[in-house]
Amino acid sequence: RQGSELSGWAMGRWTYEGIDLNHNFADLNTALWDAEDNDLVPHEFPNHYIPIPEYYTFANATVAPETRAVIDWMQRYPFVLSANLHGGELVVTYPFDMTRTYWKAQELTPTADDGVFRWLATVYATSNLAMASEERRLCHYDDFTRFGNIINGANWHTVPGSMNDFSYLHTNCFEITVELSCDKFPHASELPAEWENNRESLLLYMEQVGDG
User: Fold this and answer.
1) What number of CA atoms fall less than 13 Å from residue 202's CA on the CB side?
2) What is the DSSP secondary structure assignment for residue 208, as one 8-state letter?
3) pLDDT category of residue 184 using cuts at 50, 70 and 90
4) Which of 94, 103, 123, 175 has its CA 20 to 30 A from that of 29?
5) Is 175 in a helix, a strand, or coil?
6) Torsions phi, psi of 43, nearest 5?
7) CB-based contact 151:96 (threshold 8 Å)
8) How far apart are CA 14 and CA 22, in angstroms?
9) Spatial distance between the Cα atoms of 26 and 79, rounded to a whole number of angstroms
């Protein structure tokens, strides 16, 4: 009702309980990196299928019911490929989303599977009509076209407790984030065009599940 460009970036971001679902998953990164620094990986601390910390499972932990439901879903079904869809930019990000240097807002923080993640992100970005358009304009200030419209999430801005990092470290699912439109709240009349921009990208991305 406020108009697609007048509501602000934070509109709709938090749940009724005041929880930001985008930062609500267990931080497994810090535990892994601390174990690596102390030479505990992989014999004393795993570098995949990392268990959820006990504090996160307590009834009084600040974990949204939506987050708990998604984690339960992940644990019941062994997903290997995933994507979550965001709005407000035109770029595909890939793990890690959290910077390894905890006080840095931006820092290139690749996973051990960086080549695979870059490929998955590139598959989506190069087949997305809006991202690949020669007439494309910048959404805001960042020129992601210089990087092929993909970027390591932590190298853009750090996101502790992201679903991408949690999926990768807890369940071995390779997950990317697709910022699929400059407009966070497109009008209903614009939805067919948004679908056309992303249809082939979604299909090609799903086909990557057959590759190893």
Assistant:
1) 10
2) G
3) confident
4) 123
5) strand
6) -75, -35
7) no
8) 9
9) 18
**What token pair was written down for 68?**
């708990």
Tokens of 93: 């990000």
d(CA 204, CA 83): 12
Paired tokens of 163: 């679903």
Q: Strand 81-86's sheet: what is its strand order?
A: 81-86, 174-181, 89-94, 150-152
**Number of alpha carbons in the 13 Å side-chain half-sphere of residue 190:** 9
- Inter-residue contact 136 to 144 (CB < 8 Å): no
Please state the length of the chain: 212
Find the helix packing angle between 114-127 and 191-207, rounded to 10°: 140
Q: What is the distance of C-alpha 203 from the center of its chain?
A: 18
Full-model pTM: 0.94
Enumerate the active-site residues.
Answer: 179
Q: Per-residue pLDDT tens for 122-138?
A: 999 999 999 999 888 89
Partners of 156 in beta bridges: none
Place of tokens 């990208």: 201
Q: Which amino acid is at 100?
A: R
Q: Are 98 and 165 in contact (CB under 8 A)?
A: yes
